[in-house]
Amino acid sequence: ACRNLWTGACQIALAGGSGLTLPHKNGYRYQENMIHSPDGTCRPFDRDAGGTVEGNGVGVVVLKRLETALRDGDHVYAVIKGSAVNNDGNRKVGYTAPSIEGQAEVIRKAYRVANVPTAEVSYVETHGTGTALGDPIEVEALRKAFGAGQPGSTGLGSLKASIGHLDTGAGVASLIKTCKILEQRIVPRNPHFSELNPNIDLDGSPFYVVSEEQRLTPKRSEADEVLPLRAGVSSFGIGGTNAHVVLEEAPRTRPASAKGRTYNTFVVSGTSEDAIRRIKRNFVDHLAAHPDVDGSDLAWTLQNRQRRAAFRYAVEFEDAEQLRERLQESLDADEPPARVHKNARGDVYFLFSGLGAQHLRMARGLYEAEASFRAHLDECFAISTALGSEVPREVFFGDTPEAEKQLNNIETTQVLLFMLETSMARTLIGWGLKPKGMVGHSTGELAAACVAGVFSLEDGIRLVQARGSLMDTTVEGALTSVRAPEDVVRSLLTDELAVAAVNGPEDCTVSGAPRAIAELERRCAEREIKFAHIEADHAYHSQYMDSMLGRFREVLDGETLHQPKIPYLSNVTGTWITAAQATDPGYYCSHARETVRFSAGVEAILERGGTLFVEVGPGKSLSSFVRAIGRDADVTTVNVLRHRLEEIGDGEHLARAVRKLWENGVSLDWKAFHRGREPRKVKLPLYPFEKVEYPVDIEAFQRLLDGPVDGGTRVVAARPARQSG
């Protein structure tokens, strides 16, 4: 396993063993000078040692390269510095007889591989079977390998005195024990040891048998530098295979990082509602006992170990106390978990908003807290500066009435929304949230096109700045939102009016001359048709845009257009955009002039089975449109940037968005999501598996398969094993 990690053949490995003797309660006939103890007690190195006893157990360790484990914030118990294996079966006097030379050779080789002098080893976990022949031979092999040393500087111990010989599980059990010794810096006493076996000679060696619990103290080098604690582990097979591992204590655990998020998301999944309920209960108890656990560490640990099970629960939280309270509230309310269908694809569709979504301080908190979003937005500001405009940056950081007035200028609005939305989309994609498709509203389609690779970010900013600037030269106009179907709205229009957008089944935006809009609103009131006047200076997506199209086409002719790499919807046709449309400069003139067919675009997504929409612009206006369009479908919308009226911070809102995604079957690339924040893995309650007893008795096992299920758990009482007459 280590060799494959060293060579890069794998990034993580599991190594272990198990030993199981059946039936559990059995006896044996003692034979003198054989392996079993005469009285059922294993006494390694003791003068009364007469043999070992059998034990049952299983052990597994997770192995990773140290740099990878530290990067991932794993809890490191110890470091394997080197190891060696050999086989001396052809040199032994008998199949079961141990060999001094074979054992000494493998120990020497292990320390050469580890590049660790034996004088720096504070403890050796021996094979230590407690046999009259094996123990003296093993100590003599250690003496040959280590040579002379400072007396009493290297302790000897054996786990077999505590749990017996686990056969093929013995080696990993000894490894785990030694890792815990290095972690705790405490060596437990060797049970059943009172007086050294007279056949073992420790004089002139560094060894002593650990007879009482003691604390390990680091050794010093020849240059008087404090060394990390080091230990060895031996495991010898009865047929002649010998192994030795050299361990070193783990690097010091770093404290909780100050770079973690203020708000995080607790995510879990399970195979049943009861499993989720037990997870919540276990965490309530754990957090009550460990109120100081860091929120980012907790979130990172959980997010990285979740299976994609059907039942899901998530909640955003600020600290351990708030999480405990919210979990308890969920339990008290008997809140059911979300359920993700086993065939759910987890496809996500991005929504890019247009005019009207902007507000001062939009995404400011996200800019301050999220490095990836900040980098993308700073890139946009740098491009705008190079193009001769500092206005987007000034307005984004502005808080004054003048900044708000400038924000509502069409040129500033369009380009700043374009910057925010492309930055947010690129951030989400970097976090592993790759859209199956996209749909934008007016300017939002240009942001979607940029994300799809139709034009570069620089070309996109130049294009949107020109578009907004030219629109600002058109005649004065007005907009109103009418709550009625398109055919009803069109029946109310005059030559001075146009349908600027169809946002839903009964939601249209009308554009036109101010007096004509006022007259339309009067007629709507008379007919009791609901409407809402929209603050605007121009009649967008109407015949009043014609005056700017020629100059806009000149700008477009200087752009380099490419085929989209991500599918998205056309506002002009309401269907999936084609490569010919995306690369045609004339298309973007039609896009500025014609009706925005947003409703038809969403319907095209629904026809493909899409039900999960993520709004990347500020607010949730498009989300409300989508819910109205998909009212007969099981549609879910998630807005990543908060609405201006939502009284929570951007960080909490992001954590809430992650919750909604998780509960709808979508998980982020957690490593990318936490990149640069240096979270640690911490000890948390594990998954509460539903216990099922599997009896050895074949008849009881058959009843297990055929029997009724009570609360999701089968319980079978295994009968005692048959006794021979």
Topology of this protein?
Layout: H1 2-7, E1 13-19, E2 57-63, H2 66-71, E3 78-87, H3 100-114, E4 123-125, H4 134-146, E5 154-157, H5 160-163, H6 170-184, E6 186-187, E7 207-209, E8 214-215, E9 230-236, E10 241-249, E11 264-270, H7 273-289, H8 295-304, E12 311-317, H9 320-332, E13 338-339, E14 349-352, H10 364-369, H11 371-386, H12 391-396, H13 401-407, H14 410-430, E15 437-440, H15 443-451, H16 457-471, E16 478-482, H17 486-490, E17 497-504, E18 507-512, H18 514-526, E19 531-534, H19 546-557, H20 579-582, H21 585-593, H22 598-607, E20 612-618, H23 621-629, E21 636-641, H24 650-663, H25 670-673, H26 698-706
Parallel strand pairs: 4-5, 4-9, 5-7, 14-15, 14-20, 20-21
Antiparallel strand pairs: 1-2, 3-10, 6-8, 9-10, 11-12, 12-13, 16-18, 16-19, 17-18
Task: Kindly describe this structure.
The radius of gyration is 36 Å and the shape is elongated. The chain has 26 helices and 21 strands. The chain has a 6-stranded mixed sheet with strand order 3-10-9-4-5-7. A 4-stranded parallel sheet has the order 15-14-20-21. Strands 17-18-16-19 form a 4-stranded antiparallel sheet. It folds into 4 domains: 2-249, Peroxisomal Thiolase, Chain A, domain 1; 264-344 and 665-690, Alpha-Beta Plaits, CATH 3.30.70.3290; 349-476 and 537-649, Malonyl-Coenzyme A Acyl Carrier Protein, domain 2 (3-Layer(aba) Sandwich), CATH 3.40.366.10; 691-725, no CATH class. The protein is of the alpha/beta class. It starts with a helix and ends in a 19-residue tail after the last helix. Helix 14 (410-430) runs antiparallel to helix 16. Mean pLDDT is 92; it is low at 709-725.
